[in-house]
Amino acid sequence: MRITIRSLFSSLLLVIICTTNAVAQDSSKSSTEERPAPRIKLTMGEPHVIVRGIRPEEQLWGPYQFPRPYRLKDRFVVSVHVKNDDISNYGSTALWFESRDKGKTWQEVDASVAQECGLLLPSGDRVYLPPESGVDVSEYKQIPWNKYTPGYDFSKQAEEGTLPIPDGMTFWMGGTTINAFNADRLPPSLSQKEWTLYRIPAEQTKPVLEHAEVDWPFLTRVVHVSRNGKKVLKSIFPRGNPKLGPDGAIWVSVFSGEGHLNPENGQYSPYYSAEIFRSEDNGKTFQRRSHLEYEADGHAFPYKSGGFSDSDFEFMPDGSIVWFLRSTWYSSTGKEWDPMYMTRSTDMGRTWSKPVKFDKVGILPRLCRLENGVTLLCYARPGTFVRAALNDSGTKWTEPLVVMTPGDRSGLANKPVAAPTFHDWDGSCNNPEIVPLDENSALLFYSDFYYPDESGVKRKTILCRKITVQREVE
């Protein structure tokens, strides 16, 4: 039976008492004896509109998607992407909104608020790593493949205005060729290993532009070459949310470009790899702490995948770290969903257990830990889900709280189509985010392409809703 918005929102609160769902165990065991698993009750509040955008039939994919929230001292702010979904637009100016009543009402604010959204450090500094757009390198001359001979020197750095023979190459549907280069081989103007960073020093209000040095062994830069010949060098900014670790360092998750060089052997892989970086000097420099390859062995990991891309991690009460990993990428496979994987570390990210399947879907996993000690996880596509950890190690989780059905929602459109595309079907960008609200609750942010305005017209809408956790030890 198709679930409609009327049935989905028939009550202001949907209460689901979540039962235990054990995650496949690996050989990594917590050294701390765990407390008994509690009973978790999650309650989902009514949705609150942040912004209504265009009708989905105007442009189904791209604008009014990808909400990214931040919790400031006295308010919440969220950015909303309003451009095409393209590597050339990642750093484009977004629309920004703020709420001073815990997410109930929202007002648009100037985009300059972005630089206030950094991670607050123990020093009092606040550091923000902004998204960055790709760089047009169409004017660079590409050395043709027929110049690749047994004598070609892959250790030589290319001259300015020239792109060397790639270290590897893959393709996207639609005709995009993606060339991968060891960053050290690119011309000096393109070989920098750094992230743009805005710092607001303690007790000051004006942001200072910096460039954080990034120690990324075998950093691989990719150039997307479209059918019309345009060449764009993809940016390397971290897509994860920076966090303070228990060691006082800044931690952030990143992933490679479309294809990368394995740092263990320098061999090219067409898959994404997931990374975690760490800074011990308040964001002046970052060093890679963790690297995960997608092992395409056809058994534990399916071949038809984009690799490990978007990911998030959380520090657990027992001292371990859990890391959740997306494994699908439509442009690489033609499929919008694939399993989400989970791995654990018991030595502060130096080594990790072999990733195991956590769920059959898992776009943009995001985690947050509440003051009451409960860790929440959200993920999506199709559908949107929230789960809570049932123990201190993160090896047991509740069954998913369904925020948006994974079923066919295309009938909710203003103009339903007989043969829906996938995004007609799911009716959302399904890139959710979650941030703590108070001791026992969090705010979940997501999009709904079929949310009605005051006149009943369905519009691409960014929403938030409160997720409340009640933890009771039996």
Q: What features would you describe in this structure?
A:
The relative contact order is 0.17. The strands form nine sheets. An eight-stranded mixed beta sheet has the order 9-10-16-17-25-24-21-20, with no helix packed on it. It has a single domain (5-472), classed as Neuraminidase (6 Propeller). The model is unreliable at 1-32 (pLDDT under 50). The longest helix is centred in the C-terminal third of the chain and has 5 residues, at 422-426. The protein has helices at 5-8, 330-333, 422-426, and strands at residues 14-18, 20-22, 39-44, 48-52, 65-71, 76-81, 95-99, 107-109, 119-120, 126-128, 135-136, 141-142, 162-163, 168-172, 176-182, 194-200, 208-215, 220-225, 231-233, 243-244, 250-255, 260-261, 268-269, 274-279, 285-292, 311-315, 321-325, 340-345, 356-359, 363-369, 375-380, 384-388, 396-398, 401-404, 433-438, 441-452, 458-472. 3% of the residues lie in helices and 40% in strands. It is built from three helices and 37 strands. With 474 residues, it is mainly beta. The protein is globular and about 70 Å long.
Which helices and strands occur, and which strands form pairs?
Blueprint: H1 5-8, E1 14-18, E2 20-22, E3 39-44, E4 48-52, E5 65-71, E6 76-81, E7 95-99, E8 107-109, E9 119-120, E10 126-128, E11 135-136, E12 141-142, E13 162-163, E14 168-172, E15 176-182, E16 194-200, E17 208-215, E18 220-225, E19 231-233, E20 243-244, E21 250-255, E22 260-261, E23 268-269, E24 274-279, E25 285-292, E26 311-315, E27 321-325, H2 330-333, E28 340-345, E29 356-359, E30 363-369, E31 375-380, E32 384-388, E33 396-398, E34 401-404, H3 422-426, E35 433-438, E36 441-452, E37 458-472
Parallel strand pairs: 12-13, 17-25
Antiparallel strand pairs: 1-3, 2-33, 3-37, 4-37, 5-6, 6-7, 7-8, 9-10, 10-16, 11-19, 14-15, 15-18, 16-17, 18-19, 20-21, 21-24, 22-23, 24-25, 26-27, 27-28, 28-29, 30-31, 31-32, 32-34, 35-36, 36-37
